[in-house]
Design goal:
By secondary structure, the chain is α/β, with parallel strands linked by helices. It has seven helices and four strands; from the N terminus they run H-E-H-E-H-H-H-E-H-E-H. Helices cover about 40% and strands about 10% of the residues.
């Protein structure tokens, strides 16, 4: 604000580039692991690829149905039940209503929330939200799947189930961009 009021005579900030001179070409069916310290630009890169952020310079081209999982469960309406949020989230991802209905039972089964599926999301723990968000994302058969610290939340059983599903998607030819702080996870998965 001070800078704007000085009409350009005084500069109070400095330009900051989270990413610069990035040229990334990921072939169909590739699983790309991205690892780096906090603030290195990993999430910024994925946000630009997924279309959440627009690059200051350059272009991004993604071919196929893209599903991005950042904060799992983001985009859910906390007043809606898990069932209602499955429909909402699927529509937000651009999935036709009929396709969501066809996959609905698989999503509910994968989420494994029991009777909580009929409770408002505001009653869910962060792990439960994660399970539901992941269940929707991996059951809509994306061509490109972006995962940012997806396995950070949840119990050991959930993590194993989620990792198994990610292996299935990888092996079926889904292109995956995967960020993790765990080098072992990236080595094993990618």
């Amino acid at each position: 604000l001070k800078e704007a009021l000085s009409f350009g005579r005084k500069k109070y900030g400095r330009d900051f580039w989270a990413l610069k001179d990035i040229n990334l070409d990921v072939e169909k069916g590739t699983t790309l692991g991205i690892i780096g310290r906090n603030g290195a630009g990993k999430s910024t890169l994925l946000s630009i690829v997924s279309g959440i952020l627009q690059p200051t310079e350059g272009t991004v081209e993604v071919n196929g149905r893209l599903v991005a999982l950042f904060a799992l469960g983001a985009g859910f309406n906390s007043e809606f039940t898990g069932r209602e949020n499955i429909m909402l989230n699927g529509l937000i991802l651009g999935i036709e209503r009929q396709e969501i209905l066809e996959r609905f039972d698989d999503i509910v089964e994968f989420a494994d929330l029991g009777d909580f599926i009929d409770q408002p999301i505001k009653t869910y723990s962060s792990g439960m939200r994660s399970k539901l968000g992941f269940a929707v994302a991996v059951n809509v058969e994306p061509d490109v799947l972006i995962l940012d610290e997806t396995l950070a939340v949840g119990d050991a059983v959930y993590k194993e189930t989620a990792l198994q599903r990610m292996y299935e998607l990888r092996d079926s030819g889904t292109t995956i961009l995967f960020v993790s702080h765990g080098m072992k996870t990236v080595e094993d998965f990618c």
